[in-house]
Amino acid sequence: MWLASSTKLTVFRFLGDVDHMNPLRRERTSAHNARNVMHDAEVREVIDLGETTMTAEEIDAYLRQEGRFAAVGTVRKDGSPFVVPLGYYYDGDHLYLSSTPDRGLVKRLRRDPRVSVSIFDHEAIHGYVLVNAVAEEIEDPDDHYSLAMHHRYPKPGVDGPEHDRIWLSEGRVVFRIPTADAFGMDQRKATSVHALAMPDKPPSA
């Protein structure tokens, strides 16, 4: 039976006029837009994936699954997207990313904290979670969040304390990303071939 869902995928449209400005004005405008993204961004409902749409509880469980990585999309100076694979830590309300201060990720998020994150698995019948939000740089006393993220991905046969020491040696910068508006899809919830192949459209009579 086709099951309708009230959960909707929400995305943000980045403001297009930023790309045509001179670099200094573009940088200032991008930062202003990011601070006011909930007011300035066009929020629109895009798609309902029916019975394959994850509940909030299923999204929570999916993000806690060990071994998953995130594709993290940020914005370059010229307005183009840049995506990198990263590990993450999740506490039930936020994703946490940790990087060294000189990495491009830190520079891009400090300039424009808008972020689009995709966490997915590699099964033929698969699932994913999408998070479109604004990242916030936070303090991390005693490297709590950095180490929580680091320890989610243990390296077999590697001296753990020594690896931690080297990994922390250049300092870490932590960004927090809210997951309240996360959207998830899991094909494993499909109860028919049609729902698997075309979850956003009811079967024709």
TrEMBL record:
Keyword Oxidoreductase: yes
Record bears the keyword Oxidoreductase: yes
Pfam families: PNPOx_N
Keywords of this entry: Oxidoreductase
Gene Ontology MF annotations: coenzyme F420 binding; oxidoreductase activity, acting on the CH-CH group of donors
InterPro entries: F420H2_bilvrd_red/Heme_oxyg, Pyridox_Oxase_N, Split_barrel_FMN-bd
CC annotations in GO: cytosol
Domain Pyridoxamine 5'-phosphate oxidase N-terminal: 57-153
Protein name: Pyridoxamine 5'-phosphate oxidase N-terminal domain-containing protein
Organism: Nocardioides jishulii
